[in-house]
Amino acid sequence: MSLQIYIDGLFYDRENAKVSVFDHAFLYGDGVFEGIRVYEGCVFRLREHLERLYSSARYIMLTVPLEMDELTEAVAETVRRNEIRNGYIRLVISRGAGTLGLSPWLCPQPSVVVIADSITLYPKEYYDNGLVLVTVPTMRNRVESLNARVKSCNYLNNILAKIEAHNSGCVEALMLDHNGFVVECTGDNIFVIKKGKLRTPPSYLGALEGITRDCIIEIAHEKGYAVSEEPFTRYDIFDADEVFLTGTAAEAIPVVEVDKRPIGNGKPGPITHELIEAFRKRTAVDGYQVYA
Ligand code: PMP
Fold this sequence. Notes:
28% of the residues lie in helices and 28% in strands. The chain contains eight helices and 16 strands. 4'-deoxy-4'-aminopyridoxal-5'-phosphate (PMP) is lined by residues 35, 158, 184, 187-189, 208, 210-213, 246-249.
């Protein structure tokens, strides 16, 4: 069966799922999106993802053409039509088709696109052995310019960083802000652990308020670990006992080396392992049951 893709209330085969070349998401990256996981027929933290989507849309003055319950149903129906039990959803609200000028006011109808597909995980050895990161020269966009709390379709800042990491033989990049504070990676939030205490950069530095990040913070609290959101530098990364990343696609993944410095003993750490295990147990029960 060909993939069934939702566009503005209708379903199309993969080959026929098309949007206009005049859509400003295509012309200018003018739109917002979410990447969401499905675990055992449960859309992980769908409500939180939708709330973030509406917040992003509000920031760019884009009216989502569906109410939250309608969008929930559009997502659920797309998952059901594609018989996805474990997979990945891409939800996009684009500004819609307009003229060749920038004016969003000339785009009368925003579009809603939902794609539900399977997902290729990072290879298992990354989870077992940990990731190697490199700090890249491309800095996080300043929050005054394009606040990364807005999950917009304009991801060039992240893509440039990803290219630079790749050029250095790494799959993920460590991104700093213009003051040298650690912000996040190209598609993941970052945590450091020192003496049993977790730290992650605050969103005001330009880190996305990750849904996975929030879940990990909750789990860490439940397990009695202190977690703080505070600025820190590369020094704290090199000096950490453990480092790990969180994100919808990557889930939670250990980091074992940054800029050629081994983290801790150079192997995934025990607290990281404990948190990842707890996260995995939670995924299929913490969200919206599509087949219920
Ligand atoms: N930071 C960035 C830049 C991201 O794009 C993402 C999502 N892929 C994340 C962090 C992680 O957020 P979430 O856990 O909500 O997927």
